[in-house]
Amino acid sequence: MSPRSEAAREVLHVPVPALPLSAGSDLICFPVGRSERGSALWPLLVRAPHAMQFPAELTKGACVTSRPAELRLICIYFFTAHLFQDDRNSSLLNNYVLGAQLDHRPVNNLQKPVNISFWHNRSLEGYTVSCVFWKEGASKSSWGAWSPEGCYTEQPSATQVLCHCNHLTYFAVLMQLSGDPVPAELQVPLEYISLVGCSISIVASLLTMLLYSQSRKQSNSTTRIHMNLNGSVLLLNVTFLLSSQMTLPTMPRPVCKVLAAVLHYALLSSLTWMAIEGFNLYLLLGRVYNTYIRRYLLKLCMLGWGFPALLVLLLLMVKSSVYGPCVTSLSKSQENGTGFQNVSMCWIQSAMVHSILVMGYGGLTSVFNLVVLAWALWILYRLRAQEKALSPWAYRDTATVLGLTVLLGTTWTLAFFSFGVFLLPQLFLFTIFNSLYGFFLFLWFCSQKRYSDAEAKAGMEAVSSSQMTH
Questions:
Q1: 42 and 101 Cβ atoms separated by less than 8 Å
Q2: Where would one find coiled-coil regions in this protein (predicted)?
């Protein structure tokens, strides 16, 4: 059954002159709908005040002809979303669906967007709203799916959602349950901290690789593990900055999908290399005999780089729609209540995938590394308890504990405290520590390099002094 048979529609006949519209005005359509309980038509401006504003760019195709033309602009309003059910059983704002069509021709990639206003009288507290359109053929089990491609969401007031889309089709406002909303006033400082911190980490990661290339002990497997972790963190910082700073309304959908997949891969790879650091630390401190593992570093690289790539490729093959524009809701205080401001980035759209392959994966890594860290500190305490003079080692032990804490990525456990009174402190601490993670790895590498150089120098001096005595 065609969805158009279930809705009333208003046909606007727009006469187009033969001359080009150099200063043409925009077109505004107030759709006419059908009552759910009766067959009488009534203007939506009174009962359901929604409106669509179309740019004069729509008439460009008719202006190039020598004879006057007439365009037929069809505005459609749906009262129910039963004909637009997708695989996720998505919830729409008041089940409102607005559609527009121009002479049965496809209209895409408009330079000036179509503005669709949805007014409502319900509370959006606890929800993230995003403007979407119905994409036919986007799902295997149903005849379409909701997609935010080419649409940008605004909330000018607590009772209005404004959609800016660069094409004509069926539009709606998608509602998704969200956690505690972050105040919109914190968006700028958090973005500034992320930008500065990630930029510093990128420079520090490059310096670390430069120092490593000039190091004499490049055959040390532990140092090479550090470098692989450093490389994954460098990739994570670069893709995060690209994903969060690029403007989504003008970004092609495939580019955003690829960027989101690369960002997810970089995160999984970083978490995997953090777990590998914990495993390597366990081997260094816990083994009594020298344990030889054939092609140890090669196997670790297959795990650290190959396993995350396998997970991401499987997701892309099974359901590539999990990647794309992801909307985050920020609360904004207004005179008539609390409104919401949406921020978009290229990330994971599926809540289940995010729960399993982001929070779950990171949680397992954090638990494993916390156990290894606690065990390493216990061994360090036992070794120092056997020493009579403990004070000379206090400074170095403190630096070692801080270094291991950073190296094992235990600061990522802050992600699990994003609720209630912990929300705002966690946001700032998580953003500061993890955006500077590459810089902390640089400091750890420099301290380890300095310590190994000092040991090598002391060994050479001991050898030379023994030779002089003989």
A1: no
A2: none
